[in-house]
Amino acid sequence: DSACLITKTDTNPFFVKMKEGAQAKASELGIELKSYAGRIDGDHESQVSAIEACIADGAKGILITASDTKAIVDSVQAARDAGLLVIALDTPLDPVDAADATFATDNFKAGELIGQWARATMGDAAAEARIALLDLAISQPSVDVLRDQGFLQGFGVELGDPEKWGDETDPRIVGHEVTSGNEEGGLKAMETLLAKDSDINLVYTINEPAAAGAYEALKAVGRENDVLIVSVDGGCPGVQNVAEGVIGATSQQYPLDMAARGIEAIAAFAKDGTKPAPTEGKDFVDTGVQLVTDKPAEGVESIDSARGAELCWG
Amino acid sequence: MDQKGIGMNANTSAEPLLKARGLVKRYGKVTALDHCDFDLMPGEILAVIGDNGAGKSSLIKALSGAVQPDEGEITLEGRPVRFASPLDARGHGIECVYQTLAMSPALSIADNMFMGRELRKPGIMGQWFRKLDRPAMEKFAREKLTELGLMTIQNINQAVETLSGGQRQGVAVARAAAFGSKVVILDEPTAALGVKESRRVLELIRDVRSRGIPIILISHNMPHVFEVADRIHIHRLGRRLCVIRPDDYSMSDAVAFMTGAKVPDEVATAA
Amino acid sequence: MDQKGIGMNANTSAEPLLKARGLVKRYGKVTALDHCDFDLMPGEILAVIGDNGAGKSSLIKALSGAVQPDEGEITLEGRPVRFASPLDARGHGIECVYQTLAMSPALSIADNMFMGRELRKPGIMGQWFRKLDRPAMEKFAREKLTELGLMTIQNINQAVETLSGGQRQGVAVARAAAFGSKVVILDEPTAALGVKESRRVLELIRDVRSRGIPIILISHNMPHVFEVADRIHIHRLGRRLCVIRPDDYSMSDAVAFMTGAKVPDEVATAA
Amino acid sequence: MSSDTKTATSYEEGLQGASDKVAEFHEQKTALKRLQHWLHMTPSAVPMIVLVAAIIVFGLLSPNFFKAVTLSTILQQIAIVGILGCAQSLVVLTAGIDLSVGAIAVFSSVLMGQFTFRYGIPAPLAIALGLAAGTAMGFANGWLVARIKLPPFIVTLGTWQIILAANYIYSANETIRSSAIAAEAPALQFWGYSIQPGGVKILYAVFLMVALVAILAYVLRHTAWGRHVYAVGDDPEAAELAGVRTRRVLIQVYALAGLFCAIAGWVMIGRFGSVSPSASTGQLGNIQSITAVVIGGISLFGGRGSIVGMFFGALIVGVFEMGLKMVGTDPQWTFFLIGLLIILAVAVDQWIRKASA
Amino acid sequence: MSSDTKTATSYEEGLQGASDKVAEFHEQKTALKRLQHWLHMTPSAVPMIVLVAAIIVFGLLSPNFFKAVTLSTILQQIAIVGILGCAQSLVVLTAGIDLSVGAIAVFSSVLMGQFTFRYGIPAPLAIALGLAAGTAMGFANGWLVARIKLPPFIVTLGTWQIILAANYIYSANETIRSSAIAAEAPALQFWGYSIQPGGVKILYAVFLMVALVAILAYVLRHTAWGRHVYAVGDDPEAAELAGVRTRRVLIQVYALAGLFCAIAGWVMIGRFGSVSPSASTGQLGNIQSITAVVIGGISLFGGRGSIVGMFFGALIVGVFEMGLKMVGTDPQWTFFLIGLLIILAVAVDQWIRKASA
Ligand SMILES: Nc1ncnc2c1ncn2[C@@H]1O[C@H](COP(=O)(O)OP(=O)(O)OP(=O)(O)O)[C@@H](O)[C@H]1O
Ligand SMILES: Nc1ncnc2c1ncn2[C@@H]1O[C@H](COP(=O)(O)OP(=O)(O)OP(=O)(O)O)[C@@H](O)[C@H]1O
Ligand SMILES: O[C@@H]1[C@H](O)[C@H](O)CO[C@H]1O
Ligand SMILES: [Mg+2]
Ligand SMILES: [Mg+2]
Q1: What confidence tier does C11 reach under pLDDT thresholds 50, 70, 90?
Q2: Any idea where the ABC transporter domain is (chains B, C) (predicted)?
Q3: How far, in Å, is the centroid of ligand 1 from the Cα of E354?
């Protein structure tokens, strides 16, 4: 039996780990795994051709982290029609039931957790916060929007259209900049926002590499100790950065777990046609998200960096 | 100062077919044409001679629409004209062989000869599908080259870039001679040609004139010039110095004028 | 078949300075050189004449390293040589003006003249920082052009692309004449030149010879050829038809040989 | 004075009876030579051979590769690149380059979708407007290149960013769902329909691509306009002097390229079902189409190459990507090998040309 | 027979006493004309003027723009693009293009990092090895271009993908963290150190960029090798015939470009602190550097332009990006406006050149 793993890219450590998890489980269960990825984040077309290749190749099932959650639906349907089990990983499809099952982090919640933590940590100062938002890309893919808007909601900023970032009117927001989710982008975006307003004291970042870049920019102007950085991912380098105080708090997700459970589901499906059932009360299997911080805040559940390091994936 | 042609015994009453007055063309610091005048009479072969860099090519480029003069005016058959492009001038029947030949190296001889005036197939294919009539174009091209004696060309579909320098020049001359209807301009057409091929070009020039079409011939070859020209426009330092008839002056005189060794009488008195 | 030079009265005992035997060069379907022989004697001016497309340029390109012949061998001063590039040939003292002139249009006259053999500043700047000695190069270039009478060039730092066709050719000739140490090859050096400028080039050719350097001159200008050449290599259909001395034959004969109107006696008997 | 005239050219008496013989050369006609000559004369043959070789190799490596379904899937995967490649070929033949092809395609598809769904314009009209908009974007490129005389690379680098940003801003990053389109404006998905001879699905889009390639091949080879495109790319100054309206031809080429891109945009809707402003064609379409063009043997310096070569170029890339996927190569290794392929394909091409020259 | 020789050229008697006068022309020397002429003679002046204008406009629009910190931030943001631009300029001057610059930079930085941390090689040696590796990658490009005679676009399109894929495969996408580098191998971060005259921070990287630009400007203008680079780009056949070893020059140019890219990779470590294989320079470095080169007035057809122009080109882009962001435009609009800028800057340049011609 063979299975396919289709990720958004294979350059982001998150997906690298996801692939490792899938590969390990697949070898264990004697399944042949073929992996595909887009060239850039948001590369929808490559994912469509990957699905087509899986169908042509007679795979039993597909694990996919969709780049365009609405647009991929037709291709997913074609695969299901051809008798493949399709499982959405990390990113739910739109509508969710377009896939046979979904194993995902709740990205809005991931954002909300760091937003709540930041608000609780700042206390009264939250009313005069100067917020920098370091987002992913100007095409605003869904994770980008969900985390950003979740963070703002958690922090208590009134959202405009929750389907997009950048339309909020709260004066505490200094600006949004895009980072491509890497150190280089995080650094440049932070430098730019600092030039715009040197009093920034809270930085939201789409992921931990962007956070590391932002930290370098802050360090360069000697503000690394009085600015709060929050992020999402919970990769091992990110958790270590939490331990070292680079990042204040991060929402940890569990890609290895997602992938492994996805492979198990395909193996089961190949054996007797059973399909996985969603988490109770949700329309997807929530693989969980936990806040990692060494400065726990009241009213926000969290684990410390030592525990985070045990669970981390990079 | 109005430069007058001298020695114009015949045709003095006739109106020039192509006339220019006060042409100026500057390239940055260099003034290639400096208030230059020009007259081409109907049916004549007019040679233009002058030192290297005197501005001969610039003059004929201005006359054929390849460059736009900064000042001055041009009239064709008495009507003022402004050529915005070589195609424009061609539309008025002025055909030109430039010193740089103006060929597309990767295209075939036939393609080059018909560039901008391709023949289309008769009937629906041509009218509706705008299909080229290649056999007709190739036949025509072959004929014209044969007339020029360029038989060392082995294949009419050869790319122009594979031809020798002289072969290329032959193709360009054949093109102009075949299509010029009012004026044919040749900028050093025999510069790269052999003895045999040069002779053919001179014959061709006479042929064209015998069809009633006047020719402007730029050449550094005095024997050729004196052999075929009806009148000789001598160009010096960006302007027309004088116009002579080959019967009235010797080659030595012409060379002396154009190099500044002597000053023609009329100009001397006028100055 | 070994083509023999005919009418070689003098120098028959002397060994040719540059010699080629059985050169073949094919371009796809076209054979530009067809087992061609060649001899250049020390200190002579050898003219090469032939129809357009006869293979003259191909021959000198093979001799100067610009193309690699498919077959045949070349000897310089009796030693077999293979030139991998023009620079290679130049290293052996062979300097060539190609028909296409080989200039970089955007660079200045001085840059072009010294391309590949630039002068460096004396002292540390030149040795360590490899700084060019522009004033020296410009001075030299200006002198050489003045020798050729190319005074219409207004600025030695002008880009070559802004020169007239003839001016460009003058620069190329000046370059070769200034640097050739063993052989100077000129492929139609006067094709685009005016009467005055052509005369200077002929004088220059004689000058170079008087420095003991032999010259290969390709030209379609019979009077020039017969005026300056010591011997004339007649090229026809890709090979050497014969070699004549200008004193033994008339221009008409030469033209008849090269165009195939007549067959030289020796060749006729040999065939 | 005519005395010296006569004497001056008297040596031309020698011309009497000059031979008119054409040089004849003996050539060795070995089989190899003849093959090389044929390859040289048929520039699109080289990519075709690479293609056939690739298909055979992958057929041997992967048991599933040699099925009709796989091959039809490859065709449908290259439909968009093939059409963008037509646009790119036109521009490259004029010695230009068009970095905006993908952006024009995506924006045109978004316009078609939004016109229908945001403003309620009937789908066929919305499509026509989308095609017109694409043409206009191409025209703008052409105008800047031909009139303002800016380098094509820089013009289309600029318009690429402008169009892509406009695309995101105008669409507010909203995807229009496939089910909505199928229900309300099926015309948008026209090229996604298929015929199924013997159970093998072939998209209309594939036929469209083949038809466009054929038409363009005809136009370039057999009409005056086509010759002018080559002449402009070969030597624009010479073309101008020879009487080609170079500026007009350039503008037409870019506008036509824009139209082709808009058609590709329409095809994207059919192929992907939905309309998505963040389709990666916007980012990658230019490089993909240029890859097809260059593997197909069209010179980036203009004036040389054929559209059929581009088609084979697109096919080669498609076969390689699919083949490597089916063999199960890791994506990064796929990129690595495609990179090698690009260089190798062109090197082989070069080698054959050189050998036969 | 010499009788007809004499007669044939007898008309040359007319040359006796030929004038040696040079044509003299009266020119109107208005101030405007003189300005135009100066601009024409000083090609890098045009981007400089655009730059100054941009700085003034943004200074007026945004109160914070005109601060030393902002300006030093801009300089440090363009350091990498500026160094990559040096590499790109060299290649573009030879009428080539290098799409692999960013990939070489990123891979070189990864190699320096991994050599140090994976194999425990001392940092200075690891840096030297990284620089050598970058040079080798450039050499490979040059070899393919000069020896196999493949078009530079296609070669570097291929090596771009190959190097980037190799980079991901080799590094397993692992980032080396800034704190680890600072603790164990500070030499890697050398160019991230700064001096702070009057509190304004200036990175060593900025000085390096300026020094590299200055050196390259000298080499191109004042050494024979520099002239050969121009000649090769201008007309390679003519250069070859004139005695330039075109192939050797090409290989040197690409190899040197590779070295510059590797230097940029080293600078990246200093600037970003960490070593990340997925730095966006790998994807975007080529377009960014080409933009700088073209805005700076270097012709993509080779042989024309100056490295100082490239420097101003990089600065213009830097000033615009920063300026627009400070004025508070939305990132999508910034993208849009940068696209416009690219076209406008080159159009202004073209216009001035034309007016002065
Ligand atoms: N595009 C150009 N840019 C700058 N200067 C130019 C340009 N074209 C011509 N010139 C200059 O204008 C002057 C006249 O050139 P032109 O080509 O008209 O001379 P010509 O009489 O045809 O010479 P030749 O007999 O050598 O062909 C020359 O000094 C030349 O350098
Ligand atoms: N690069 C090339 N590719 C193909 N054919 C060529 C090439 N160069 C020359 N030829 C062919 O070789 C033959 C000889 O050309 P060559 O240039 O040597 O002639 P030539 O004697 O110098 O003529 P001309 O007097 O016109 O300069 C011609 O038929 C020409 O078409
Ligand atoms: O959801 C994933 C991961 O969380 C990663 O951090 C970045 O890419 C997103 O798409
Ligand atoms: Mg001229
Ligand atoms: Mg020749």
Answers
A1: very low
A2: 18-262
A3: 19
Predicted local distance difference test score (pLDDT) of residue B264: 83
CA-to-CA dists, residue E139 to A45, E142, E144, E159, E220, angstroms: 34, 5, 9, 11, 20
φ/ψ region of A236 (left if φ > 0, alpha if ψ in -120 to 50, else beta) reads alpha
Instruction: Give the closest of E18, E231, E239 to C196, CB-based.
Output: E18
In a domain, D44, yes or no: no
D261 in a domain, yes or no?
yes
**Which atom from ligand 1 is nearest to the alpha carbon of B235?**
21
Q: Which residue among A16, A18, A64, A65 has the greatest number of ligand 3 atoms within 8 angstroms of its CB, and so is best to mutate? A: A65
Instruction: Out of B109, B151, B164, give the residue to mutate to test ligand 2, the one with the largest number of ligand atoms within 8 Å of its CB.
Output: B164
Q: Which two tokens stand for residue D136?
A: 């206009």
Chain B positions touching C192 (Cβ under 8 A) are: 52, 99, 188, 191, 220
Supply the pLDDT for residue C152: 57
Instruction: Name the residue among A253, A205, A280, A274 with its Cα closest to residue A65.
Output: A253
Among D8, D164, D339, the residue with its CB nearest the CB of E158 is D339
pTM, two decimal places: 0.87
Structure confidence by residue, pLDDT tens digits, E102-115: 999 999 999 999 99
- Predicted pLDDT of residue D1: 39
Domain count, chain D: 1
Mean pLDDT highest for which of B32-41, C47-56, D250-259, E316-325? D250-259
ipTM of the complex: 0.84
Instruction: Report the pLDDT value the prediction gives residue A253, as an integer from 0 to 100.
Output: 92
Q: Which amino acid is at E26?
A: H
CB contact under 8 A, B115 and D231: yes
Which ligand has its closest atom nearest to the C-alpha of B55?
1
Are B192 and C191 contacting, i.e. CB atoms less than 8 angstroms apart?
yes
Q: Which strands form C45-50's sheet, in the order they lie side by side?
A: C94-97, C183-187, C215-218, C45-50, C231-236, C239-244
Q: Does domain B10-93+181-268 have CATH number 3.40.20.10?
A: no
Is the confidence at residue A132, as pLDDT, over 90?
Answer: yes
Picking from D25, D37, D353, D354 by the largest number of C CB atoms within 10 A of its own CB, the best residue to mutate is D25
Amino acid (1-letter code) at residue B201: V
C258/B contact by beta carbon, under 8 A: yes
Looking at C159-212, which runs of residues are DSSP E strands? 183-187
Does D92 map to a domain? Answer: yes
**pLDDT tens digits, B137-171:** 999 888 888 877 655 556 778 888 877 777 788 88
Is the pLDDT at A218 greater than 50, yes or no?
Answer: yes
Name the most confidently modeled range: C146-155, C162-171, E157-166.
Answer: E157-166
- The amino acid that residue D158 corresponds to is G
Residue E236 above 60 pLDDT? Answer: yes
What percent of chain D is modeled with pLDDT above 70? Answer: 89
D240 located within any domain: yes
Tokens of B113: 């000869």
- Residue B84 CA, chain-centre distance (Å), reads 18
- Nearest chain E CA: its distance from B150 CA (Å): 26
Atom of ligand 1 nearest to the CA of B57: 22
How many angstroms separate the CA atoms of A232 and A235, rounded?
Answer: 9
Q: In which domain, by residue range, is E125 found?
A: 49-55+64-355
Mutation target to probe the A interface, by most A beta carbons within 10 A, among E171, E173, E337 is: E173
Q: Which chains touch C (3 or more CB pairs under 8 A)?
A: B, D, E
D136 touches chain E (CB under 8 A): no
Q: Which residue has the tokens 């597309």?
A: B104
How does pLDDT run across D53-102, given as a tens digit for each residue? 888 999 898 888 888 888 888 998 899 999 999 999 999 999 999 999 99
- Predicted confidence (pLDDT) per residue in C167-186, tens digit: 788 888 888 888 878 899 99
Cβ-based contacts of B120 with chain D (< 8 Å) = 224
Report the separation in Å between the CA atom of B55 and the middle of ligand 1, taken as the mean of its atom positions.
6
Which residues, chain by chain, have CB under 5 Å from ion ligand 5?
B 165; C 57, 99
